[in-house]
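Researcher: Last one for today. Full complex below.
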Amino acid sequence: MELRDLMSSQGEWLRGEGPHSGVVISTRIRLARNIAGYPFLRRMNAEQRQEIEGEVRQAVDDLALFKSACYLQLDRASAIDRQFLMERRLISRELAAAEGERAVAFDRDETASVMVNEEDHLRLQTMRSGLGLEEAWRQANEIDDRLESRLSFAFSSRLGYLTACPTNVGTGLRVSVMLHLPALVITRQIEKVFQAIARMRLAVRGLYGEGTQALGDFYQISNQQTLGKSEAEILETVNLTVPRIIEYEEKAREALARESELFLEDRLWRAVGILRHARQMSSEEALSLLSAVRMGVNMGRVRGIDVPTINRLFVCSQPGHLQMRHGEELSAEQRDRARAEYISDALRQANPN
Amino acid sequence: MELRDLMSSQGEWLRGEGPHSGVVISTRIRLARNIAGYPFLRRMNAEQRQEIEGEVRQAVDDLALFKSACYLQLDRASAIDRQFLMERRLISRELAAAEGERAVAFDRDETASVMVNEEDHLRLQTMRSGLGLEEAWRQANEIDDRLESRLSFAFSSRLGYLTACPTNVGTGLRVSVMLHLPALVITRQIEKVFQAIARMRLAVRGLYGEGTQALGDFYQISNQQTLGKSEAEILETVNLTVPRIIEYEEKAREALARESELFLEDRLWRAVGILRHARQMSSEEALSLLSAVRMGVNMGRVRGIDVPTINRLFVCSQPGHLQMRHGEELSAEQRDRARAEYISDALRQANPN
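Model: Here's the assembly. Have a good evening.
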């Protein structure tokens, strides 16, 4: 499989379907694992990294899920390829930027990936479009079991799974849900929601994880604690909180439609107008305008374009995807031009009205 | 003639034709006159105002130019009608807002108007689309002569025509040229041009005269001095200065096209996109966006729409015109909505591409 083959879709996480997909972009389960008998990544030498890489590759190759999948050694991949994988959320920002022997395996549908030599020896993640905690958890659990039957994971009967960072010790589990909350932002209720989330001991992050900004009104909600809690407890906390946030966002959208219809319509259609006609556009502006259009489509106010198309624009207008499409490195100005052209062409074809 | 009949056109001043109409919107000649034997306006009582009004009406009625024209007593006109006339530049902002017996006469083509009981007893003005100093002056001079054969104007052989404000004493002449200077604004050369204009002892004003802001990159250049100068000298100063400003603006447009093509195209097309899609728009924003589109059309970069259409949008999207069209008073919010709808419909029909 060639990376370029992925260009025609937006990947599982932005498929734009699944339960509550009007507000919930995607659900992600991540498990951190390390192989017994080796030091953690920071203390490994090049040879040990290679050994880990070889062991994991063998184990992954054995799994049916990854049979017709992609296994990529990232230290040999181009910067564009790594950015492309990061934008599709198949690898983390950190793994894309790291150095040394490291790799990723993912299945053709992009529902699961295994990162090798990220912060831990293995980072297994599963993704679902919309709210799909159970399904994502079931798949992650199954892959974890199968890998564990081939690899010996570092585990303490007292602490649980051992990880490079103490915050992951125990289950090694992080549950994240990516939410699209434009109406809570517009109506200035988002801070109140963040406070409620913090009281549940959940964390809020931006589009591409820790330390990234909340672009395009996208927010990731995830658990902070893993030690001393069972997987079921962690899933339960997220499962209880997310539906309440969905409800807040939906109420805010209804209030906007009821009390500020002209303001709302104006905002949605200006976004359509600019996306259709601009000749250069930054990534941040594109995310922000597409966010408004996405809300308009989900509210039934912008017709002739569907959420999967908008989601494709979200991911395909990012730098790595633009450069992959053009088959070469582009300067920031060239990217801004290519981005405006790509989005404008897509919107003319879709013809929202 | 009904005022509503004027709605289908934009008036002479925004006809969008005439010499140098890419940069010069219009030329205006104004003469201030007072009738001998009466005090200036501020010291007149209601009876005297009425007498003046009667005398001028009679004199105007005798002129062939005003035969099938409009004579309107402004103290009996509605606020919308007065604003409408002001937006078409047939009356001044001051006359629209004043109180007491006052009137205006103007011909069907809106090339000439006579304001009665403005700051002076009579304010005669002639307008030409584009740069047309000689033609406007010839017409003003002719109307002035004909009125003078019927009315006795206050005149001193030492000072010339006597006027309410000392700055108008002498010729009572103000020559103004309305310029559209978007490229000088974008390239930040406008202040330099203002300084050059000031050195020629000319004044720079905004769209609707003294004290108004330079909206939509429109600037009025006019003479400040009238005492101690002949009409020919005043016309000559303006006639020498304006072509140089036109040249600056044209060079700035060429430089933009050459050095910042992407920036320029982006700016023009974003303006088209917002004008086409917005659902509410202030008068200021409309002027600013239409200004960009006008420049794009004049530079041959926006096709499928002509300058007269854009000029019609300029004037017809103003509050008085919008309310005249709707046949009733509109709140600010209603106007913003009506304006966006009016412009968007017009641009969809014209289909610029």
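Chain B has a mean pLDDT of 91. Chain B touches chain A through 18 residues (CB under 8 Å).
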